[in-house]
C-alpha cells in the first residue's frame, strides 16, 4: 500500500513537471513568434513592437513650414505673470519669500525688517532643545499626550526654516562676491605668470644676442 501511494505521488510529480515543460516551450514559441509577454498574458505582435514613447503634441503641424517661413507659425504664448496654479497649489512668479502668516503658520520671532537673525536662531534652537526634552518626558510618563509637543516642535522647525530662507539672498550675494574674488585672484596670478615668462624670454634673448655678438667678433 505504501509503495502504491509513493508510485501515485511520483506520477503526479511527473505530470506537473511535464505541464511545466510544455508551458515553458509554449512561451518560448510565442516569444520567437513575436507575440511577447506582459504580466503573464500574451500580447499581440503589433503591441510588442510599438513605440514606448508618446506621440508628439498635435500642434507641431502648425510649424511644418517654419524652416521656409519662420513667420508662418503662431508666436509662443507670453510668459505667465502673477499667480498660477500648479499641481493643486498656487504659485507666483514674483521672487518674494511668503511670510509665515501667508502660509498659516504662527510666527515665534519679532516682526519687522530689523531682525537679529543670529539672536533669534539661537533662541529658537534653545527652545527646540527644551521641547525635545519635554517630549521625551511626555513619552515616558504620558504617552497619549505627545501630539501637542510634536506640534510645538513642528512650529519651531517651520520658524527656523523661514529664518534660514530669509538669509538666502544674503548667502547668494556672499557666494557671488566670493566667486568674483576668486576670479580676480586667478587673473592676477595669470598676469604675474605672463610677466615672469616675458622677463625670462627677454633674458634669454639678451643672452642669445651676447653669444651671437661674441661669435661675430
Primary descriptors:
217 residues, mainly alpha, two-stranded antiparallel ribbon, 5 helices, 4 strands, 60% helix, extended, disordered N terminus
How would you explain this protein's 3D organization?
This protein has 217 residues and is mainly α. It contains 5 helices and 4 strands. The strands form 2 sheets. A two-stranded antiparallel ribbon has the order 1-2. Strands 3-4 form a two-stranded antiparallel ribbon. Strand 1 and strand 2 form a beta hairpin. Helix 3 (117-141) runs antiparallel to helix 4 (146-166).
Largest sheet: 2 strands, antiparallel
Q: What structural class do you assign from the helix and strand content?
A: mainly alpha
End-to-end separation in angstroms reads 127 Å
Determine the strand fraction and express it as a percent band: 5-15%
Rg, please?
Answer: 39 Å
Pfam families: Med7
GO biological process, one term: regulation of transcription by RNA polymerase II
Keywords: Activator, Coiled coil, Nucleus, Transcription, Transcription regulation
GO molecular function, one term: transcription coregulator activity
Amino acid at each position: 500500500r505504501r509503495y502504491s501511494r509513493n508510485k501515485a505521488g511520483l506520477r503526479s510529480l511527473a505530470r506537473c513537471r511535464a505541464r511545466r515543460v510544455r508551458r515553458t516551450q509554449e512561451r518560448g514559441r510565442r516569444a520567437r513568434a513575436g507575440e511577447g509577454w506582459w504580466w503573464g498574458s500574451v500580447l499581440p505582435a503589433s503591441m510588442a513592437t510599438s513605440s514606448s514613447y508618446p506621440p508628439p503634441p498635435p500642434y507641431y503641424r502648425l510649424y511644418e513650414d517654419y524652416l521656409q517661413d519662420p513667420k508662418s507659425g503662431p508666436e509662443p504664448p507670453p510668459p505667465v505673470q502673477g499667480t498660477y496654479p500648479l499641481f493643486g497649489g498656487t504659485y507666483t512668479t514674483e521672487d518674494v519669500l511668503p511670510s509665515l502668516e501667508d502660509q498659516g503658520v504662527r510666527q515665534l520671532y519679532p516682526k519687522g525688517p530689523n531682525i537679529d537673525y543670529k539672536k533669534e536662531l539661537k533662541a529658537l534652537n534653545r527652545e527646540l532643545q527644551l521641547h525635545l526634552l519635554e517630549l521625551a518626558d511626555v513619552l515616558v510618563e504620558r504617552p497619549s499626550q505627545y501630539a501637542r509637543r510634536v506640534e510645538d516642535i513642528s512650529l519651531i522647525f517651520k520658524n527656523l526654516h523661514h529664518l534660514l530662507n530669509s538669509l538666502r539672498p544674503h548667502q547668494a550675494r556672499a557666494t557671488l562676491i566670493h566667486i568674483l574674488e576668486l576670479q580676480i585672484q586667478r587673473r592676477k596670478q595669470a598676469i604675474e605668470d605672463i610677466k615672469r615668462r616675458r622677463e625670462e624670454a627677454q633674458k634669454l634673448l639678451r643672452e642669445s644676442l651676447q653669444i651671437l655678438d661674441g661669435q661675430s667678433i
